Amino acid sequence: MIQQPLIFAIIIFGIWLGISQLTFPETILTWLAKVYHILITINVTWLIARLLDAIIREYIVPLTEKTESTLDDQVIPIVRKGLRSTIWILGIIIALNNAGYDVTALIAGLGIGGLALAMAAKDSVSNIFGGIMIFTDKPFKVGDRIKINGFDGSIEEIGIRTSRMRTLENRLVTIPNAVFIGNMIENISAEPTRKVVLNIGLVYETKAEQMEKAISLLKEIGLQNPNVEDNILLSFNNFGDFSLGILFIYYIKKGEDILVTQTEINLAILKQFNANGLEMAFPTQTLYHKKES
């Protein structure tokens, strides 16, 4: 981590030693001295930033990983970025001051353009407030699966301006935090259980005994899956246009993989229905032709 700053420092020092052995006009020598001081200060800033980042990564991050709270996992990345930015800002100010520039006048000049900068950065300010809202209201945390603005996926990182989501299609989406302020957030991971509703249709040729068998099989499939709660609901609920309807409602336990459980249940239904000669219906139309006498 610190090899590059050290190598850069040696190169700068070597170049300065070489320059000091040469003869230059006073103005050029003064200018070169300013450049040298700026480069040395920036190099020291680079070294300090790298050291602090390494300390956080090697010592603080492992400690947070051992805790049960997820808040520290969200705060640490922001603290790292904040420290890095602060160190670089201070380093640049010190570098300019060491080079003989009037830093006070520079800061005052920046203050004159502060209003224009604030207008240009209003979206960034909204995103920062959105990040603060996430940390205070805690509508979700890292690792939660949420739905927002048509996106469905798991939160991988919460930053001060943006958050990153890994969608079900394995795409990484960066969402400005301001989006979370003005939109509905559905936190799927926070649900005590996940309700799944299946409407299964059997052909009209199905006999009463077969319907009873189908309901019994569905009950058994739900109870045998360890990820499903016991409060399964089943009903022969309607005579549809082209099928006899069965309503099958089950609840996936909190913390279990929703997609995997749904796949297991659906595969079990398909296998059991095929094995027992239960035929599922699809939209059909029967025409009766009356023979004229």
Sheet/helix structural class: alpha+beta
Q: How far is the N terminus from the C terminus? A: 97 Å
Number of spatially distinct domains: 3
Mean pLDDT: 82
Give the strand line-up of the largest sheet.
Answer: 4-3-2-1-5
Q: What's the Cα radius of gyration?
A: 33 Å
Number of helices: 8
Oligomer type:
single chain
Which residues sit in consecutive blocks of at least 5 with pLDDT less than 50?
Answer: none
State the major sheet.
5 strands, antiparallel
Q: Hey, roughly how much beta strand do the residues contain?
A: 15-25%
> Shape, please?
rod-shaped
The helix/strand series, from N terminus to C terminus, equals HHHHHHEEEEEEHEEH
Helical amount: 40-55%
What is the tally of beta strands?
A: 8
What does this structure look like?
By secondary structure, this protein is α+β, with helices and mostly antiparallel strands. The chain folds into three domains: 3-112; 124-189, SH3 type barrels; 191-275, Alpha-Beta Plaits. It is built from eight helices and eight strands; from the N terminus they run ααααααββββββαββα. It has helices at 3-20, 26-66, 71-98, 103-112, 114-120, 122-137, 208-224, 258-275; strands at residues 145-148, 151-158, 162-167, 172-176, 186-187, 193-202, 233-239, 244-253. The strands form two sheets. The chain has a five-stranded antiparallel sheet. A three-stranded antiparallel sheet has the order 6-8-7. Strand 7 and strand 8 form a beta hairpin. Helix 7 packs antiparallel against helix 8. The mean pLDDT is 82.
What's the helix and strand layout?
Elements: H1 3-20, H2 26-66, H3 71-98, H4 103-112, H5 114-120, H6 122-137, E1 145-148, E2 151-158, E3 162-167, E4 172-176, E5 186-187, E6 193-202, H7 208-224, E7 233-239, E8 244-253, H8 258-275
Antiparallel strand pairs: 1-2, 1-5, 2-3, 3-4, 6-8, 7-8
